[in-house]
Amino acid sequence: MDLEGPEIIQLELKYCERCGGLWLRRRDSGEVYCPPCAVDVTEVAPSRKKPGRPRLPIHRDPDIQSSGASETWVLRKGGTA
């Protein structure tokens, strides 16, 4: 039996993007979940909701007044940041 040399496996420390636990993965493998969470994620059914167009939230402030094409903004005093 002739050994050419030891096999080197490069690992990197990674946190699980589901549970936050630390684990070791093979370098450049691209895995994002630890082994227990990877099993749980594959068992969960995929979402049936179709991805839509992203939209910004709109907050209608009663202190903002608008009339026709020109707009008048009434601003309230904010915090002390």
Radius of gyration: 27 Å
N-to-C terminal Cα separation, in Å?
A: 72 Å
Please state the average pLDDT score: 79
Number of strands: 4
Helix-and-strand structural type: alpha+beta
Question: Which helices and strands appear, and what pairs or packs with what?
Answer:
Blueprint: E1 11-15, E2 22-26, H1 35-43, E3 65-67, E4 70-72
Antiparallel strand pairs: 1-2, 3-4
Can you walk me through this structure?
This protein has 81 residues and is an alpha+beta fold. It has a domain at 10-45. It is built from one helix and four strands; from the N terminus they run E-E-H-E-E. It has one helix spanning 35-43, and strands at 11-15, 22-26, 65-67, 70-72. The strands form two sheets. A two-stranded antiparallel sheet has the order 1-2. Strands 3-4 form a two-stranded antiparallel ribbon. A hairpin with a 6-residue loop joins strand 1 and strand 2. It is elongated, with a radius of gyration of 27 Å.
